[in-house]
Design a protein that fits this description.
Elements (H helix, E strand, L loop, with lengths): L4 E10 L2 E8 L5 H12 L12 E2 L2 E2 L6 H16 L12 E4 L1 H8 L4 E2 H4 E3 L10 E6 L5 E8 L7 E7 L9
Parallel strand pairs: 5-8
Antiparallel strand pairs: 1-2, 3-4, 5-7, 6-10, 8-9, 9-10
């Protein structure tokens, strides 16, 4: 996995502490970064605190405190704060399957996208296999699969994690 730090800003210096803000890729070990900075400065280093302000498309602006969630009650939490699982996967490419493709995926079989599905939108998959969202012909989210487009084919889709309650045949 390639780790990337897109930006790093020094916010505050109160020796022996530094406050920094950084924008980094998933998989960046911030404790290791603090240790390495300390080693370079010759004094050792560790994290005193960590505040994640963004994870993927989710930010603190869209977050709710535990107090706010607790005060709302179950119905309020479900209506105002609970998001569809697909929202967390919105940056992932999507495939749309025919009814026969959905049935194959449901039973754990591979699907040939050329015959029983299609990649949604103008997406070029840089890596293969690649995780994709799986939808039925009515655009209902079914789960996540691995799409392998090696060999120049339209692609072979293998199921990875499915939302079982989403499946209903013939309705």
């Amino acid at each position: 996995m390639t780790v990337r730090i897109d930006s790093i800003r020094l916010l505050n210096v109160r020796l022996p502490s530094l406050e920094i803000e950084l924008d980094c890729s998933a998989g960046t070990y911030l404790r290791s970064l603090a240790r390495d900075l300390g080693d370079k400065l010759g004094c050792g280093g560790h994290l005193e605190s960590l505040l994640r302000t963004r994870v993927g498309g989710f930010t603190l602006a869209g977050a709710a405190s535990l107090d706010r969630l607790g005060a709302g009650g179950r119905k309020t939490v479900e209506q105002e704060f609970l998001l569809p699982v697909e929202k967390a996967l919105s940056r992932m490419p999507a495939v749309k399957l025919s009814e026969s493709g959905v049935e194959k995926i449901y039973f754990g079989r591979n699907v040939d996208l050329g015959a029983e599905g299609e990649l949604v939108g103008k997406v070029t998959l840089a890596e293969s296999p690649r995780e994709v969202r799986i939808h039925d012909s009515r655009d209902s989210f079914l789960g996540v699969g691995l799409l392998d487009q090696s060999g120049g084919s339209s692609g072979v889709l293998r199921p990875k994690r499915l939302m079982m309650e989403a499946f209903s045949f013939g309705s």
